[in-house]
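Input record, target 12 of the design panel.
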């Protein structure tokens, strides 16, 4: 790999941003399927392939928004519940990513790590396609009512993320610490 293509890879990784504001246009489902195909090439100990990807249609999105309103209202009151539901209405694409449950603690930890890597792969692919995403872990992903709505068996898998995706309105700026703050050389 040339220095230029390495730098291109670095630009892609650095350039992926969590997006809160999306354009109101839909995404070609083939791009999302391609992104999922790439996502599952994440590192995965024992090749358990613990991930599953649920793509929501308009009706399920609508019911998800209703449930967000209900859950947030229960926790924080009607005003914030309505605000969160209105906000959720502006997200064009909805993807749920789950991880297989395991009784073995180490396997569970490693499987969860693999699913997180897969979500990063998915996000990077979208970013390179000039799309963007937001990985959300709000209370809905832990609520049994959402498992029932999606027909996901909570004894067998758990939701790692609700991924909103679409074309970004703006790419926000982000910072990270200085590189030397996070490296320790052990001699
Ligand atoms: C496991 C995980 C959960 C996250 N959950 C949320 C969330 O619930 N709401 C949210 O606004 N952002 C969430 N994010 C996105 C982070 O806030 C975001 O990655 C961070 O602000 C850095 O921005 P960047 O992704 O553009 O670098 C989550 C990210 C990760 C990795």
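The sequence produced for target 12 reads:
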């Amino acid at each position: 790999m040339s220095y230029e293509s390495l730098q291109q890879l670095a630009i892609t990784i650095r350039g992926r941003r969590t997006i809160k504001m999306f354009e109101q246009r839909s995404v070609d489902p083939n791009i999302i399927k391609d992104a999922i195909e790439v996502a599952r090439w994440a590192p995965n100990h024992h090749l358990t392939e613990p991930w599953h990807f649920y793509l929501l249609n308009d009706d399920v999105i609508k019911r998800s928004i209703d449930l967000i309103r209900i859950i947030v209202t229960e926790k924080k009151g009607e005003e914030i519940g309505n605000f969160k539901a209105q906000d959720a209405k502006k997200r064009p694409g909805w993807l749920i990513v789950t991880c297989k449950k395991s009784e073995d603690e180490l396997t569970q930890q490693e499987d969860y790590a693999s699913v997180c890597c897969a979500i990063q792969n998915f996000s990077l692919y979208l970013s390179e396609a000039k799309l963007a995403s937001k990985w959300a872990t709000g209370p809905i992903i832990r609520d049994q009512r959402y498992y029932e709505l999606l027909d996901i068996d909570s004894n067998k898998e758990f939701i790692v993320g609700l991924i909103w995706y679409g074309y970004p309105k703006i790419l926000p700026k982000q910072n990270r610490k200085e590189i030397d703050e996070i490296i320790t050389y052990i001699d």
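The chain has six helices and four strands.
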